[in-house]
TrEMBL record:
It comes from Aptenodytes forsteri. GO terms for biological process: intracellular protein localization. This is Neurobeachin-like 1. Residues 300-537 form the Neurobeachin alpha-solenoid region domain. It holds the Pfam family Neurobeachin. The keyword Ligase does not apply. One of its GO terms (molecular function) is protein kinase binding. GO terms for cellular component: cytosol; membrane. Keywords: WD repeat. PANTHER family: BEIGE/BEACH-RELATED, NEUROBEACHIN-LIKE PROTEIN 1.
Length: 600
């Protein structure tokens, strides 16, 4: 306390001994070290009080400007606290002291100073100040995310609930200074380095991932305003490094995803912001005005940004409370926003096929395993409308068509035989689109896949028949001049298979009309394959089966019996044959125990 030089010497020695714990780069996973820094009880007496006074003196001298020696001491102090917090038993006590508030005060002033220097275009070396800021933010992370949950998350490693429950030490309580600090840092943020903005976003993500109590305190209207502003700012590329701007947008989206997942696990009285409010602002960004973007180069940047927005939506929906989040998405009119985005993208020159692909992925994610969401989409948007929108973008790529196939099976379209039809509407859309495809290879590829997926079992055939697929196939075959012969043969074979399941009089009439030609003496090219299909319908294949039956495929399906007082006589009996088709495998259930159907 009486000898500052000796104190600095001692701090230097301590920091040098434990330098491996100074992992201030948020992008790197923490290094595993066998040794741990000492507990507070093993430090010299009154050392924490002495360091608090030293830090307070640095804060008080900030307004006049710190000398080089004092700058070095303040950085040394912050390094000391980071190291101390890497012994997780010390985190709570360090967090209860006033160090963090002093460090935040100094960091705020330094960041303001960095902005001013940039604004005034001063070229002086700011490295010492930036180094302090980075270490100060790492110190905050050590307090509020001691197990580095956020670093694991951005590295693609998700901790299970069991793993989190094993985390013995809790993060320190979040200081009330954080939200004003975070908000102020992003005022006039165009004068702040992108890398420092990324560090600030990393810190916010760390606080949210570190623990629910701190997360709910940090997620406020002010911090959400900052995140939305950062995303909106990604339109203004100027002369900044596009990679840095993209990384900033990506981090912001990951922060928003973490926020949404935390809000879903909290009660309404704990939340300062509702999930629906965040999503509404999120969708407003999707459809903000982009006509002001001047040069063609920005078209690709604009597209990339919104692909990122939509892909992040997919990860946002990947949570334990998915049905709840799906309902919130629906109430936020997400379908309308996504379709409007596709319509807006037509104002740009060039083919924005990647954007269409990511939009279909987003729509699939929102409707995944939700009959209600599928009905809402059908009523509000309609597949006829999305077909017109997609068609207006020009010739589709194979990737876009495959994404529609994925939407139909709600998984990988190549897993035919494992996945059945979950949404028949995209299949109807693909059949309708076939004559418009200029690529014969794509026509053959799509029609061949449709033939396989639609005829895989009785359930698939029944689904397609009930969706009036036979009529849609006949309508497509009417455009025979635009269809490759192999594509037409696949469609007719599919029609034969569906017809063996069920064929109405109107459908049969349309099929016969298909074979009419302008020249009476000239046979239609489809005569032979259509006759073969009709013979296939009439031919018995396999075991005899009922033509009329109850479909009890869905988990809640059943046969309702009248209440007892309506039974004729004193008893009631019901007789039926039962046909058990092989169930489609749900990949998400493979790790869980298999399900068993019961008859009772």
């Amino acid at each position: 306390q009486k000898d500052p030089d000796y104190l600095k010497l001692w701090l230097d020695s301590f920091v040098s001994s434990y330098e491996q714990f100074l992992d201030v780069d948020f992008e790197k996973l923490p290094t595993r070290v066998d040794d741990v820094p000492p507990g507070i009880s093993l430090l010299p007496d009154n050392i924490l009080q002495v360091l608090r006074l030293q830090l307070l003196q640095c804060v008080q001298k900030m307004s006049d400007g710190l000398e080089e020696q004092q700058q070095a001491l303040s950085l040394l102090l912050v390094k000391f606290f980071i190291i101390l917090c890497r012994n997780l038993a010390n985190v709570e006590e360090i967090g209860m002291c006033s160090y963090i508030n002093h460090v935040i005060t100094m960091t705020t002033l330094y960041i303001q100073q960095l902005k001013s220097k940039t604004k005034e275009k001063e070229v002086a070396d700011q490295t010492p100040i930036e180094e302090f800021v980075r270490h100060a933010l790492a110190f905050c992370e050590s307090l509020y995310d001691p197990y580095r949950n956020w670093r694991h998350r951005i590295a693609g490693r998700f901790l299970s609930t069991v793993e989190k429950s094993r985390q013995k030490y809790k993060p320190a309580s979040l200081t009330v200074e954080f939200v004003p600090f975070f908000y102020q840092c992003f005022q006039e943020s165009e004068h702040l380095k992108e890398s420092l903005k990324c560090c600030l976003l990393h810190l916010f993500g760390a606080i949210v991932a570190g623990g629910q109590r701190n997360a709910l305190q940090a997620v406020s209207p002010a911090t959400m305003e900052v995140l939305m502003r950062v995303l909106a700012d990604c339109d203004n590329w100027d002369d900044r490094n596009p990679e840095e701007v993209s990384r900033k947008a990506e981090l912001t989206l990951k922060c928003l995803t973490e926020v949404v997942h935390i809000l879903l696990t909290s009660s309404s009285d704990q939340r300062q912001v509702e999930t629906s409010t965040i999503l509404e602002n999120y969708f407003k960004l999707l459809n903000s005005d982009h006509s002001a973007l001047p040069n063609p180069r920005r078209c690709r940047q604009w597209e990339s940004r919104f692909i990122a927005l939509q892909i992040q939506m997919l990860t946002m929906l990947d949570c334990t409370d998915r049905p709840v989040l799906q309902a919130i998405f629906l109430n936020s009119n997400c379908f309308e926003h996504l379709i409007r985005l596709l319509q807006n993208c037509k104002v740009f020159q060039g083919h924005l096929d990647c954007l269409a692909v990511s939009t279909i992925q987003a729509l699939t994610a929102v409707m995944h395993k939700s009959p209600a969401a599928k009905e809402v989409f059908k009523e509000r948007i309609g597949y006829a409308h999305i077909y017109e929108v997609l068609k207006s973008l020009g010739q589709p790529s194979r990737e876009l068509l495959e994404e529609l196939m994925n939407m139909a099976v709600e998984g990988d379209h190549m897993a035919v035989g494992i996945l059945g039809i979950s949404n028949v509407q995209p299949l109807l859309l693909l059949i309708q689109w076939l004559p418009e495809l200029e690529s014969h290879d794509l026509q053959i590829f799509i029609s061949n896949w449709l033939r396989r997926i639609c005829c895989i079992n009785r359930q698939s055939r029944a689904t397609c028949v009930n969706a009036n697929m036979v009529i849609r196939i006949i309508e497509t075959l009417n455009s025979h001049s635009a269809l490759h012969c192999a594509c037409a043969e696949n469609l007719i074979a599919l029609l034969g298979s569906l017809g063996s399941q069920s064929m109405g009089s109107e459908e049969l009439l349309q099929l016969i009309r298909l074979l009419r030609t302008e020249e009476p003496k000239r046979a239609h090219p489809y005569v032979v394959p259509v006759m073969q299909a009709i013979l296939a319908m009439a031919r018995k294949q396999g075991m005899a089966s009922a033509l009329q039956y109850f479909n009890l495929y869905h988990s809640m399906a059943g046969i309702a019996v009248p209440s007892i007082h309506k039974w004729p006589g004193s008893a009631f009996s019901f007789n039926a044959w039962l046909c058990l088709d092989q169930d489609q495998v749900d990949p998400s259930m493979t790790t869980k125990s298999g399900k068993r159907k019961q008859l009772y």
